[in-house]
Design a protein that fits this description.
By secondary structure, the chain is α/β, with parallel strands linked by helices. The protein has one domain. It is built from eight helices and seven strands; from the N terminus they run βββαβαβαβααααβα. The strands form two sheets. Strands 4-3-5-6-7 form a five-stranded mixed sheet, with helices on both faces. 34% of the residues are buried.
Length: 241
């Protein structure tokens, strides 16, 4: 985005933003995340870049607005793009998507299942959630029982309730379509516990063992991606005594 600066006579002139080329040769590990959502998921994963030591792990987080199958297909495209740009193999690729209404009809069910088969063939890791990514955010604040199924609107309601019961946040209201992604993510960062979220997600996934992902409501695999990313960051952050 262009940046405005004040001139000597009080006028504003536009200074072009200089986009420096990425020196991929300085990076030891390439980590790609392609998300269904163009805002919340992309911003959430992209925020990890701020804690990655310089010139170690290169993280790219892409938002798409696509359905599960097309997210996986886009991951293949983005992986090839990053490979060509860097002239290196991409070390780790993840596709992030939700079940949402994938069980609405036979066509959507088929496309959801095809996302898994394509990912398996292409060596792409999956971080899916049944039903919505906000389940992962909710797990930062409270445990969720594996039964009964938890519809999206109830996840949103519980997320609002958990935040608004915290001192100083009583007036918080969550609207999936209107609440800014940075707002809800900031509150989760301030009020939530990522380690607890991982444990709770693991418990949910264990309780849904043997159940097809499209039926395993509620469950999420986002913690697998977060754990992998954290492990790489910890590795590159380690300094010998």
């Amino acid at each position: 985005m262009a940046k405005k600066t004040k001139g000597l006579k009080g006028r504003h002139r536009v200074e072009p933003t200089i986009q420096r080329p990425i020196k991929y040769r300085n990076y030891q590990y390439l980590f790609l995340i392609v998300c269904e959502d163009e805002q919340t998921e992309r911003i959430y994963f992209g925020s990890f870049a701020s804690i990655i030591p310089e010139n170690t792990l290169f993280l790219r987080s892409v938002g798409t607005g696509l359905d599960p199958k097309r997210v996986v297909e886009r991951t293949i495209v983005e992986r090839e793009k990053l490979k060509n740009e860097s002239r290196k193999e991409v070390d780790e690729s993840w596709a992030v998507f939700d079940k949402d209404d994938a069980d609405e009809n036979e066509r959507k069910i088929r496309r959801f299942e095809e996302a898994f088969s394509i990912a398996d063939e292409e060596g792409i890791n999956l971080a899916y959630t049944n039903e919505a990514f906000e389940l992962w955010l909710l797990l930062h604040l409270t445990a969720v029982p594996p039964r009964p199924p938890l519809p999206r609107h109830e996840i949103y309601q519980r997320l609002e309730a958990e935040i608004s019961r915290r001192p100083g946040f009583e007036d918080f209201r969550y609207n999936h379509r209107e609440t800014e992604a940075v707002d809800i993510l900031d509150k989760i960062r301030r009020l939530g516990d990522e380690n607890a979220a991982v444990r709770r997600a693991e418990a949910l996934l264990a309780a849904q063992a043997g159940i097809p992902p499209i039926q395993a409501n509620p469950s999420t695999c986002v913690h697998l991606l977060v754990k992998s990313l954290r492990e790489k960051i910890d590795f590159y952050s380690w300094q010998p005594d």
